[in-house]
Specification:
disordered N terminus, 5-stranded parallel β-sheet, Rossmann fold, 133 residues, globular, alpha/beta
Length: 133
């Protein structure tokens, strides 16, 4: 994996944000671009899977509640692909239930962030799962 992380900068790091909410996608994209990330977005799991295959992001943030293919199914598909098994997947949800967090772990998610997330939570997840590589 070729990561260009100098100091605290995340210049050129490919980050994917999958959420059917335009507001959440735009918020995450704005925060991450300020840090120098190359941000990819998708409205649902189907759109995301094609982009993940082409773009190979270093970390993926995925909303749980989405039409067509939900976050759990999307995460499971990513983790079942040998090429992307090692790519960290962070679940995003407005629900903070123990069941939701456990289900996220079962499908292979590395972490669970409750919406609305803060800049520090978003960057903390990246530093925890990508910058340690």
């Amino acid at each position: 994996m070729n990561l260009n992380i100098s100091g605290n900068g995340l210049a050129g790091l490919k980050v994917m944000v999958i959420d059917d909410s335009k507001t959440i996608r735009r918020t995450a994209e704005t925060l991450l671009k300020k840090e120098g990330c190359d941000v990819l977005t998708a409205v649902d799991g189907f759109e995301a899977l094609a982009k993940i295959s082409d773009q190979k992001p270093a970390i993926i943030f995925v909303d749980i509640m989405m039409p067509r293919l939900d976050g759990y199914q999307t995460c499971a598909l990513i983790k079942n692909n040998p090429q992307f098994r090692g790519t960290p997947v962070i679940m995003l949800s407005s629900k903070d239930g123990l069941f939701d967090k456990a289900r996220g772990r079962i499908v292979g998610a590395e972490q669970y962030l409750t919406k609305p997330f803060t800049r520090d939570e978003l960057l903390g997840a990246i530093h925890r799962h990508v910058c340690t590589v």
